[in-house]
Amino acid sequence: MIIDSVTVCDFRSFGGIHEISLAPRVRYGAKRPIILFGGLNGSGKTTLLLAIKFSLYGRHALGLGTNKSAYERFIRSCIHTSPFALINPNSAYVALRFTYGKLGRKSTYQVRREWVVDGKSFRESLRLWEDDRELTSLTPDECQGFLNELVPIGVSELFFFDGEKIAELAEDETGGALGDAIRRLLGLDLVERLRNDLRVYALKYENKSGKNTRQEDFNILDQSFAALKKDIETEEGLLKLDRDDLLRLEVERDRRETQLTARGGDWGKSREEQKARAVELTATLRKRESELRHELNGSYTLSLALGTLNNCLKETSAAVLASLDRRALDTVSAFVTMFKNRAGPQLKGKPKEILESTLAEFYSSFDVVPQGLVDVSARELGSLEQIVEQSIPGAVVRVHGLGKEMAEYSDVLDQITLQIDRAPDAETLRNELASVAEINQQLSMLRSEISVRARDLKNLYLKAIETARLLRNAHERESENKQLEQPLDYATKARLLLREFGYINTQRKVARLEVEFAKAFRALSRKDDIVVQAKIDPEKFTVALIDREGRVISKDQLSAGEKQIYAIAMLEALARTSGRRLPVIIDTPLGRLDSKHRANLVEHYFPCASHQVVLLSTDTEVDEPFYQSLSPHVSHAFEIEFDEREKASSLKEGYFWRHPLREAV
User: What are phi and psi of 71, to 5 degrees?
Assistant: First the structure.
């Protein structure tokens, strides 16, 4: 299988349509397997892995136990939203185009999964094309079944994984994670489901046959199970009542606290503080009132006739100027008269004419100013100007300021007075606080009772499970000791055969897995790593690690990097044991590795992990030295950039500090 391209549209951090080519390209005459994606944390690398999984498996990409409501909530959160968009999209889709070879024939498939959200409505559509021909005859469930057959979800987890999957295997001490992987690899989960279905069928057939020689024992167990079931129902009912009471008391407590807040305002302030504040404000108001009266008795009163005063000031100024002009003219006239009396008789002819014409022209330059009605000095005029232009405007400003300040103080005083009137007295507040405290005490006791009842209910469930197990074992023992009818015999034999098949197949696969693990670990480990091989228990799937001297070592003795290498080697071994040729996709592959382990992974795992390897890395995982080591095997690279302002991711070809590689002809 080769993934040709993946397309995302308005999915998570990717707004709009982004089609990404993943097919390995030929460079310098050789096909290079690695497609490298670089991006900082939170940029959208994991989104690409999710898009591939969702394209193939839909709801089950979140886990086989995911219900529809959880899936719908997750998808709703995945539809891209932009902080600057007038209308955000209400749909998204992911699409995958891949080439799959089967029985010597290659076919191209395209799958597109789309989600549309309209208020509370949620719709999912799945479309499938084979060789550019849409398979319209298949229902969505049939399309999903077809995809599951092409790439089983259990097997895909061995090829499409992230740092969390690596950590799960690295820290697994019980063998649970490895056991799940092996069961999915071998299809043992289907075998176990078939065995359980046959057991249910056998139990039903035994009850119908009526030939049970130990019916009394079965009846006792049945009655015990029925009694436990009844007790469980009773306890569940009481627990529900207690939880309803808890909710009711919480509502009542909130209601009373709200009432206290409404009646008492800020409980931190006493009535005495409010009264002291009111007295202080009253004194301030009286002081401001005295200042206002003083201003009203001063120049402010003249502001009522400010227009008249301005006119008077203009007339007075004109009169003073006219008086000055008259005095200057009188002085000049006296001087001219004296000059004519003394020099006139001595001037004759042309000089006398020139003097008389000059004096006449000089007199004509003066305006004839009539005698004014107001006799005011320049000093008195200055006093009038100071009153009109400074004293009166200053008084107006002060009066208005005092009036505004008094209004504000009055408003505050009114509010404080209202709070004093509304605040309950100390005795009333004490009683209501005691009431709230009593409800809180009841809540505490009820929570303790709920905790005890939940623990008792859990114990009843455990007893019911144990009784069901005893009943099942009793049926199994009875089935082994009695000769039953042919269908029951066939079912029993089929269950045994399936168990034997699972055991033999598991042993065979585990033996191969141990060999593949040893190969993979040797390629990835350093010379000073203590692990040489692993022995896997085919029943419990626990792993015993063996050192060079053949001694069993504890996983606790491994460093974090060695545990990571162990997990990656185990994943590679599982993939090779599966016998399938699928692309390998790894998200954040070098999380906790030291430089030497990283170098081994870069040189000996990534280039040969598969015919197509998609790496989703940060700049600190695959840095410049590691990029240089990988570059001979890199087909092409992309950098994912996240715009914090737009809250959207985009791709460009290249890897952080590298421009796009040029294709070789």
Answer: -65, -45
Is the overall model pTM greater than 0.85, yes or no? no
d(C-alpha 333, C-alpha 132), whole Å: 121
Contact between residue 111 and residue 95 where contact means Cβ atoms under 8 Å apart:
yes
In which residue are the tokens 């569940």 written?
A: 236
DSSP-assigned letters across all residues of 458-484: HHHHHHHHHHHHHHHHHHHHHHHHS--
CA-nearest of 187, 194, 215, 254 to 443 is 254
Residue 608 above 80 pLDDT? yes
Directed axis angle between helix 486-524 and helix 176-186, to 10°? 110
* Residue carrying structure tokens 């969390």: 164
Sheet holding 543-546, edge to edge: 533-536, 543-546, 552-553
Bridge partners of 8, per DSSP, are: 18, 94
Give me the residue label for tokens 């993934």. Answer: 3
Give the Cα separation of 242 and 322 in Å (integer): 104
- Provide the H-helix boundaries in 31-139: 45-57, 68-78
Q: Facing residues of 128 across strands?
A: 111
Q: 470 by DSSP, 3-state: which?
A: helix
For residue 269, pLDDT beyond 50? no
Tokens, residue 618: 């940060």
Q: What is the pLDDT of residues 193-207, one digit of tens each?
A: 676 776 776 666 655
Q: Tokens in use for 435?
A: 């009431």
The 10s digit of each residue's pLDDT in 551-575 is 888 777 777 777 777 878 888 888 8
Identity of residue 352:
K
Q: Which of 46, 47, 55 is nearest to 148 (CA)?
A: 55
- pLDDT above 90 as % of the chain: 17
